[in-house]
User: Fold these one by one.
Assistant:
Number 1:
Amino acid sequence: MSGQLTLYTYWRSSAAYRVRIGLALKGLEYASEPVHLVQDGGQQHAAAFAALNPQELVPVLRHGDQVLRQSLAILEYIDETWPKPALLPADAGGRARVRALAQAIACDVHPLNNLRVLQYLERELDVAAPAREAWVRHWIGSGLDAVEKLLAGDPGTGAFCHGDAPGLADCVLVPQLYNARRFGLDLAGWPVIARIDAACAALPAFAAAVPEAQPDGPRS
Amino acid sequence: MSGQLTLYTYWRSSAAYRVRIGLALKGLEYASEPVHLVQDGGQQHAAAFAALNPQELVPVLRHGDQVLRQSLAILEYIDETWPKPALLPADAGGRARVRALAQAIACDVHPLNNLRVLQYLERELDVAAPAREAWVRHWIGSGLDAVEKLLAGDPGTGAFCHGDAPGLADCVLVPQLYNARRFGLDLAGWPVIARIDAACAALPAFAAAVPEAQPDGPRS
């Protein structure tokens, strides 16, 4: 497949971070188009970006003429279009397991702690900062408790979430752990998760995707 | 693939409802194992069920010895294991579009309105019933606004979300619309969505999956 790749991204968005890892694991070059989620009232709400993604959320990946939305759908597209190295296992049962791990985070943890949700809690429901932070820690904590059990109790778990090569579930887990640390959670309570996180951090593809390494991130 | 199918389900869970539609579209027979999300303090929290799914959420699909979790992962598994009729299009771009539509609901609308989230708003944050209902309507409303634009502005939309046969995005959209009506939202504001909903309702597979038709649903 030919066509230039452009990622509409924000350095601290964990959904964009997932896609950055996937692109790096595939060794794909892409242009970054920063969308600042706070400046200008949120650049994701500007007309030009809303036309690209009516959900007014990052990431969006443009591949030639194709406009791709939703981080998990984008990762599957990347995996289908550039099959090596594979982000999903070859068997249907393994694929179901990896997708379920990814969705346990992407559906049941991350959306609850998204910027727009925290803004609604603050602005519409008058929830103060400490209670908002407790909210975030509650959903991350209970979500990671479940993910830890899913990983610890399954022979499919290897050096990474599934087997001994990084894949789609790792692309989703690692950004969530970045958020967990940001909100003061200690990964020591989830030993399998902490071990996988360390294995990922040692890989150049994961290092290249971290928020602080992005062109729109804070300068050190 | 051989093996008995058992669906752990709750009549009003929209995630379970998605899988019921998928199974019905494939013409697959399955046993229903009801998990009452309110009785007994929530049967999904009982030890036997938590061992099956540490997330303590329905649905779970058992296929022989395989235990499958997360509704979107289950639908993909069903589609890979019993390919006809297909729930996903044949091209990578089409698959990405269908998955993004499904995830726009399954990641960005439904998890915010889940029972456990509404319970947290009530019990931990003292949010009263009218404000909880406004919360639900806000996330469903803004989510469907975006989905309507994604459908109306794309030549891929046909009689259903993608083309002229029902697929994975329809399996996810229809249960969300059931919820929208339950919370008093009028679909007339989303004409493409309302048209697709009516096309789905006319099909026996969708009729068989509605909450009120389930063995654990309320008797008429």
Number 2:
Amino acid sequence: MDIRRRNNVTVTGRTDGPVLLLAHGFGCDQNMWRLVVPALAEDYRLVLFDYVGSGKSLPAAWSEQRYSSLAGYAQDVLEVCEELDLREVTFVGHSVSAMVGVLAAATAPERFSHLVMIAPSPRYIDDDGYRGGFSAEDIDELLESLESNYLGWSAAMAPAIMGNPERPELGQELTTSFCATDPDMARVFARTTFLSDSRADLKTVTVPTLILECRQDVIAPPEVGAHVRDAIPGSTLVTLDATGHCPQLSAPQATTAAITDFLGTRR
Amino acid sequence: MDIRRRNNVTVTGRTDGPVLLLAHGFGCDQNMWRLVVPALAEDYRLVLFDYVGSGKSLPAAWSEQRYSSLAGYAQDVLEVCEELDLREVTFVGHSVSAMVGVLAAATAPERFSHLVMIAPSPRYIDDDGYRGGFSAEDIDELLESLESNYLGWSAAMAPAIMGNPERPELGQELTTSFCATDPDMARVFARTTFLSDSRADLKTVTVPTLILECRQDVIAPPEVGAHVRDAIPGSTLVTLDATGHCPQLSAPQATTAAITDFLGTRR
């Protein structure tokens, strides 16, 4: 198995720089990082990839079973790390990938030095004493709607997730990304994402961790960022002066600045 | 001029009930009220209409000059009130229409008994000591984007405004409504809306006023609801357990309950 080809791995940036591994979320691919790559490339060796089932990954490598749990996505991350023999990795995960990074770091702690979680949520559904922002019925409705009409669902879902209505091109870009994903694979990834409960995994984190949230995010209310911070001792929560669920596209400079501040490399 | 025909006036509900005049916002028409009409119709005489330039109003009655200021929209409201000889009106305005109601009530105070403002904003652009949620550049970008591609803009803007990504049919409904609006008339209404500054008008309000906001609204941050409440002495601000900019569609029961609680008619 050619992992580089399977996960469409791209390596760019400063060859001798510390490694940032950039991991996209549901319905996206490595293109999601396009606005932060130029600045980060000056100081870091950047490793980008597409999860199997997303972007330009190899569809033949997909299996419903493997990608029905977040551990399957973490396996992609670990195999990319192994293939490139990455060490001292700062894992930067967007949305559901933030939790994938937690799982990967728990499985192979020797490879990871820092975690950056962008708009993470360890559980989308409300629970006793926990507000995830959605009821169980909300999530059932979301998944049923996706399964009955994936393209229509994407066209309405993606702009709502992106927010920033004054810049509709952002929502259109996310819609295009969602629509480019195979509907069957998207269905599995969506179920895995929106039905996940990774709260217990947060306590496994031992590396310095930055949590980036936006002021307003339709996917995760402010309580979620606070929950993640409280669950990871010593972690840092930064609320960006940005809205929506994708600050790396809507506020790339603020996102880059927060990451480089955290890593102590801000120019 | 046949005002009923011009503004596509609909009268429904309890014939001898107190009057609710339901006024839609930008890019919408009276259909916006479809999910609250059945419950409100039990107790109220409901008057619905479409502003000239929206819905099934008469396009021939439109003029760029009149509809380039919120006072022009208030004129529509007042002419509907006059035509139907409405008194003791509770004006229920959504979004920009909340401010239209303020202007109408200041012009003809004898007609209005209460104001209900749903997701209002007296100014969208930040100012010294005021947070509207958008920079001047944001709003310029929004208007330029609208003017260059109205249908594309609508498809991305409407779902972002609606929020509630778990129910994409809501965003689709708003997209359809936006797209059904004449692009030239929409351009004028959008400029009038997003460049408005009606903060000084808030102090003219003398009738009991209910302000309804959602927990999360991409059009207006929480500071805006607080500003409106503070600017209208004795007004009541209710934060609905709802998200997005259109609670009458996304949370119709909570919206109806808040209105009927305020008016003292909740069953």
